[in-house]
Amino acid sequence: MAEITSTEYIELKRSVDLLELGMYITKLDRPWEETDFVYQGFQINTLEELHAVQAQCKFVYLRVAKQQWHIEQNSQNPVKEQIKYVNKIPIDKELNNIRSAYKDACSETSTMMSTIRLSSELNVKKINKSVDDNVQSILRNDTALAWLTQIRSKDNHLAEHSLRTCIYAIALGKELGFNELELQNIGTCGLLHDIGLVKVPNEIIEKQEALTSEEILILQQHPTYGKKLLISKSGIYPGAVDVANYHHERLDGSGYPKGVTAERIPYYAKIISIIDAYDTMTSDKPYSKGVSSLDACRHLYQNKDTLFDAEIVTKFIHFIGIYAPGSLVEMNTGEVGIIIEVDNVDGIKPRILLILGSDKKETNQRIVDLKVGNVNLSNTRYEIKKSLPHGAYGINVEKYLDKIIHTPVRNQILP
């Protein structure tokens, strides 16, 4: 029961996972002198202060206005207000802003994984900085980074998968109306969800054919490894520990490593499980090719309420769209193009950079907009015939990045 400390304020106990910027802490779950905090009682004004509290405590006591507390307690439907976001700048400008930063982030994530594998050490400042950079980019335009995730190398699968999961998690959080701190937290969960894989033998990770039943059992221990790696790391958002441990659990209990059901799976782990599954399905593996974004979304939708949370799946598909930014499609004319961006109002009429002719050979590129109803030289209205998997016809989407950045025009042949 809450303790009333004055006629104006009450004191509430709260888990550090539920803290937000602006809250005033009056007590900790341990003596102040055992922590790094200078003052006994302070307001959380920065992400650094919040992360410090989360790293050193499990719960704290907050000073809350008594009137506000009564409003919250008496509310018949106390639903957290969702933030409505709009993109601040066009995709071509944000792509130009972050193209080199994305490559640097891939490299830094790879280095982080290598360091963890060798020494189990984490550079928390670099992790928080990397996640925050992604948050700021997605707040400016949530399509640009999603587009860049389609640029994939043959090496560093784990690092790139982790970074893509981070990016998709932040973008989905934006779709769900998370505040900036929550975006930071879910991004950290995405970046570190598969950290336990560094403790799985490389011969299993890099095996060129399907794994044996014994190897699968070893692989399925990586959530437990991830939990053990993160639980002792100060400065890391505590919720990342649970996500590392639970992201392969499924609502019906068919997941691993513990086979728990929906009520025991943390909300953030439910989010990351969907994104992890999507990215795994759409990525090439040593022994199989990835599927198209549309096929992956179809699998998620078919398994909502059994394997995956239905509400989150619906939000994810709405964000990613039937045609994901940066993905490949074949048109009704036989031409092949790259999705630039999708109007989320209808989700089915994107802008497309056409790069291959009907003979599947490279031709003069042009950008068409299905919402406008562009036609080809034979006056045929363009429509999408089917989605294609990553790398179809040997296409490297990075090759066409400059065309998109420097020519934000429509239905025009590009030089």
Main attributes of the structure:
single chain, 415 residues, alpha+beta, Hypothetical protein af1432, 6-stranded antiparallel β-sheet, 11 strands, globular, disordered C terminus
Strand content: 5-15%
Going by CATH, the architecture of the largest domain would be: Orthogonal Bundle
Helix content: 40-55%
Shape: globular
Major β-sheet strand ordering: 10-6-7-8-9-11
Structure description:
The chain has 415 residues and is α+β, with helices and mostly antiparallel strands. It has 3 domains: 3-73, no CATH class; 91-320, Hypothetical protein af1432; 328-413, no CATH class. 42% of the residues lie in helices and 13% in strands. It contains 15 helices and 11 strands. The chain has helices at residues 47-56, 66-74, 91-119, 124-140, 144-148, 157-175, 180-192, 202-205, 213-219, 222-231, 239-246, 267-282, 293-302, 310-320, 401-406, and strands at residues 3-4, 9-15, 24-28, 42-43, 59-65, 328-331, 336-341, 351-356, 362-369, 384-388, 412-413. The strands form 2 sheets. Strands 10-6-7-8-9-11 form a 6-stranded antiparallel β-sheet. A 5-stranded antiparallel β-sheet has the order 1-2-5-3-4. β8 and β9 (362-369) form a beta hairpin. The chain is globular, with a radius of gyration of 23 Å. The relative contact order is 0.09. The model is unreliable at 1-7, 69-79 and 409-415 (pLDDT under 50).
